[in-house]
Amino acid sequence: MAEDLINNKDIYFPSNLGTNDKLITLLNRACQTLCDWFSKADKNGPLPFDESFNCIMPEDDGTSEEDLFSEIESLLNNSFNPVHPGSLAHLDPPPLIFSILGDLIAAGLNNNLLAYELSPSVTLLEESLCKWFAKKIGFNDFSGGIAASGGTLSNLNALIAARNNAGLGTNPNSVLFVSEDAHSSFVKCIRVMGLDTRNLVRIKTDNQGRMDINDLRNSLDKCSKENKKIFAIVATLGTTVRGAIDPIKEISEICKQRNIWLHIDGSIGGIFAITSIPIQGLNNINQANSITINPQKIIGITKTSSLLLVSNMSTLENTFNTGLPYISSKENIINRGEIGIQGSRPAEVIKLWLGLRFLGIKGIENILRSSIKRKDFFVKNISKNKFDIYSGPLHIVSFLPNKLKPKDSDAWTQTKVNELIKNNFMLSRPKFKGKYFLRVVMGNYNTKDSHIEELLRLLDA
């Protein structure tokens, strides 16, 4: 069977002639296999991994269609399933249907966002969509952005641009300010930029998990006296463990006074800024120089979907433009590979575009409001006499039994996570300020009040 397929050249690539019947058959079968997996989510649970799962590597002869689909099914059946209503551990919601289609179209196009000539329509689409996002959050006509494969890369693009804008190059005295609750990706960013942890200044947080403004001012003054060169301050719009939002208004005023680049890591909460949903602390983000937004984390855009938006596109051009001598350029069109770290890049923006077009602003708001509603329902009904609750204005809650000692938090959370997964609820256990916590993320659109009630019953048992 495999030999017959291999000898048929039409099996390798889509044909420029005819109907591509074989591809249609394979796509239909793949879609059915995927949908069957979705439909079995309630039975299989959020994380049904079998330790005996076998990864089969390529052999001398190609594999038959039947064997390949058997292996696809095995892969699916041993994967994390985000559509299960008990999948509440991370910022990984069910995939939006039209976003799945966008991934398919992007794969079929196989266009390359490196350059306009390799992706003419998609280049204009990404440029337009980034501009739309930038204007929605209040940036001016000089604004825009670029998509990247994840929030870490978006943050890294921003920080490299910030350092270049400050004229610091590889200056070893360059420093970056983040809150002590900022995402761990900034440690990685610092390393990639040729700096170390001494160049990463962590600012204390208050009892709400927000950056402490007084500590920020004192640390800025201290760094200035030590002749350290501050190239950016990062405000977090949605911390990982509790969904806190730093005081963006006050931080933006400090950045303006001291002429420091303000970057907002809005990977979690930034998407709320394009809506009319009132979120406490979500203001003045249009005063930033750059902001990261990850639509993949809550509205179900399939991975990866991250945007870096900047108030002035020239900062990205001045930072990353090196020239592409092997690529033809078109006047007034910026090759997307010249405004970010990544060169070759798939047309991931299609799944974001299709998802947003399908939802509309009202649909986006419906998804976001429902996540906040589930969080509020959970917080309202969890026993305050039994648990300490850590949460901000977004859809994330971390909690621990009252007065549990740090040394006991590891065992308690691990035991609870194991108990819950046996009952088809998947929660995470982040380590935060010396303790392990249980964390629930209420971004799963399939989770209903009845599921939350059952989760609370299990937690209280």
From TrEMBL:
Keywords: Decarboxylase, Lyase, Pyridoxal phosphate. The keyword Lyase applies. GO terms for molecular function: aromatic-L-amino-acid decarboxylase activity; pyridoxal phosphate binding. GO terms for biological process: carboxylic acid metabolic process. The keyword RNA-binding does not apply. Its cofactor is pyridoxal 5'-phosphate. It comes from the Bacteria. The modification N6-(pyridoxal phosphate)lysine is found at K297. It holds the Pfam family Pyridoxal_deC. GO terms for cellular component: cytoplasm. PANTHER family: CYSTEINE SULFINIC ACID DECARBOXYLASE, GLUTAMATE DECARBOXYLASE-RELATED. Belongs to the group II decarboxylase family. This is Pyridoxal-dependent decarboxylase family protein. It comes from Prochlorococcus marinus str. SB.
